[in-house]
Write a structure and sequence with these properties.
Protein name: Enoyl reductase (ER) domain-containing protein
InterPro entries: ADH-like_C (IPR013149), ADH-like_N (IPR013154), ER (IPR020843), GroES-like_sf (IPR011032), NAD(P)-bd_dom_sf (IPR036291), Quinone_OxRdtase_PIG3 (IPR014189)
Order of helices and strands: HHEEEHEEEEHHEHEHEHEHEHEHEHE
GO molecular function: NADPH binding; quinone binding; quinone reductase (NADPH) activity
CATH superfamily of one domain: NAD(P)-binding Rossmann-like Domain
Helix content: 25-40%
Strand content: 15-25%
Number of strands: 15
Distance between the termini: 65 Å
CATH architecture of one domain: 3-Layer(aba) Sandwich
CATH topology of one domain: Rossmann fold
Structural class: alpha/beta
CATH class of one domain: Alpha Beta
Largest sheet: 7 strands, mixed
Keywords: NADP, Oxidoreductase, Signal
Pfam families: ADH_N, ADH_zinc_N
Length: 372
């Protein structure tokens, strides 16, 4: 009889009481059983070949952290990987994405006490950013500046550290230099302009529209050249009183070769880090390079060693993080899209009409809500 009364009592409990029990049980089960995540996958081809799918959550190895990704950002290299032209280095995730911001979710063995679960970080990646979780060596994570939103933080690691490497580590930038920055409205370009001005050097940029030139001047560029309307080489010589550019940051390649030769100063440093304008130049005048005693340097960042990148992140952090905090340096974010709009983001990137960064919101329903 007692058992029968108990069953009847439970049967007539308020529905909300059952819902609370069921909801709590389901949440606990979901946390315990969580072993997959959403990530962007692709087949080689156009932006339409990008899609979201479920994949296993990676486990942090020795010296690595697992990061819950809140935002990632689109880079030119991402579009090359999608086309089959830029494979990840050995050991890196084959998921696209070279930078992210998020929260440290788990530590692998061997992480130092300075790294802790719950920290808000931005991270330089060799791959894996277009996903809800990513692993990284702890040495490549940086604290998010207090003044930053997490979407701004995602716009920093790849382009700012690339610009820092090109200017300071490879280009040996000095305050007396005249620097020519191609694609001044790009992510690397907008970062490079601010780094050049911080040291007090003169900065000339190229861009394909007056709108881009005017905007980058607000970041500190001294002059802008519309490469569609005038000779870049001739204009650089005019702007430098015939001296030319001591340092050129070139992401264009073959199509800008002749103009760069003309623009380069005696003993100039010319750093090629991209080939948006092609890789093949049928006629190369080595004599012009020899007469100018030019240093021609080719560089990428993604496949460099952990030791090199760790040193780079450390030195960049010492220079840049205080200046992000006080507003001297500002990441440029044009738009924030949901990760589900990844095809649209790649289409925008390849149209060459963006200013700064395209950022992707990964955890769209996360408890952290913010606006740019």
């Amino acid at each position: 009889m007692f058992l029968l009364l108990l069953i009847l009592k439970l049967t007539f409990l308020a529905p909300s009481a059952w819902l609370v029990v069921a909801k709590n049980s389901l949440q606990s089960s979901r946390v315990d059983d969580l072993n997959t995540m959403q990530a962007v996958q692709y087949t080689v081809g156009g932006p339409e070949n990008l899609f979201l799918d479920e994949v296993p959550i990676p486990e942090p190895k020795d010296g690595e952290v697992l990061i819950k990704v809140l935002y990632t950002a689109v880079n030119r290299a991402d579009t090359l990987q999608r086309k089959g032209g830029y494979s990840p280095p050995p050991g890196a995730s084959d998921i696209i994405g070279l930078e992210a911001s998020g929260i440290i979710d788990k530590l692998g063995p061997g992480c130092p006490p300075s790294v802790a679960v719950g920290q808000k970080v931005m991270v330089l990646l060799a791959g894996g950013g277009y996903a809800q979780f990513v692993t990284s060596p702890w040495q490549l994570v940086m604290a998010v500046p207090d003044q930053f939103s997490m979407s701004q933080a995602a716009a920093v690691p790849e382009v700012w550290i690339t610009a820092f490497m090109l200017l300071h580590k490879l280009g040996h930038l000095t305050k007396d230099d005249t620097v020519l920055v191609h694609a001044g409205g790009s992510g690397v370009g907008t970062a490079a302009v601010q780094l050049v001005k911080q040291i007090g050097a003169k900065c000339i940029i190229t861009a394909g529209s007056l709108e881009k030139i005017d905007f980058v001047k607000t970041l500190g560029a001294d002059a802008g050249i519309n490469y569609k309307e005038e000779s870049v080489g001739d204009r650089v010589l005019e702007l430098s009183n015939g001296k030319g550019a001591d340092l050129i940051l070139d992401c264009i390649g073959a199509s800008m070769y002749d103009e760069n030769i003309k623009a380069l100063a005696l003993d100039g440093r010319w750093i090629v880090y991209g080939l948006m304008g092609g890789a093949i130049k049928s006629e190369v005048n080595l004599g012009a390079l020899l007469r100018k005693r030019a240093s021609l340097i080719f560089s990428t960042l993604r496949a460099r060693s952990l030791e090199y990148k760790s040193s780079l992140v450390r030195d960049f952090s010492q220079l840049a993080l205080p200046r992000f905090e006080n507003g001297t340096f500002k990441p440029v974010v044009q738009t924030v899209l949901p990760l589900s709009d990844i095809a649209k983001a790649h289409t925008m990137m390849e149209a060459n009409k963006t200013l700064g960064k395209i950022v992707l919101q990964v955890h769209e329903n996360d408890s952290i809500k913010e606006e740019l």
